[in-house]
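Dear Dr. H.,

I hope your travels went smoothly. While you were away I took the liberty of generating a structure for the chain from your last submission, since the lab meeting agenda had it listed for discussion. I wanted you to have the full record in hand beforehand rather than looking at slides cold. The sequence, exactly as received, is reproduced here:
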Amino acid sequence: MSGQPYWESPVEKQIREAQERGDFDNLPGAGKPLDLSDSGDPDWWVKRFAEREKLDLGAALPGALALRKEAAGYPESLVDVRTEEQVREIIEDYNKRVLADRLRPAVGNLPPALARTLDVDEMVERWRPLRAERDKQQRVVREQREAAAAAERQTAPSWLARLLGRG
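The corresponding predicted structure, in token form, is as follows:
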């Protein structure tokens, strides 16, 4: 016998063969210590999974907390909305969801967490300068593209010049 155990389980045999083939060489994290910094947290694996997969856990939050998180992003998250009317509709819909959440029965002995309603006019006022800045940036980009296209048209020979071999 050449150093092999007399009896080898099928699993041990597969592991040994994989090691001989080099299947375990150059794996990510090889030779690095394990990160055990959050080993005392019972939800460590969920948090790491969400971080690794870049998941948004906002949908897993209770209603009021999800609404609070949504409100914290206003008005910056509304920059892509084009019209004031659409911004008003979004904020009014948010306020309706806040009021509907308040009508849900409390769970347990603790007082329920509440999200506050937002002033529609205040949000529109805060949205306007952000949208104006976005429009300005888009206008500058559009003008740069148009200038580049115009410069290309001026330097490129016409189809007739290319056809006659003068371009």
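Two observations you may find useful: The CA atoms of residues 87 and 93 lie 10 Å apart. The chain has six helices and no strands.

With kind regards,
E. W.
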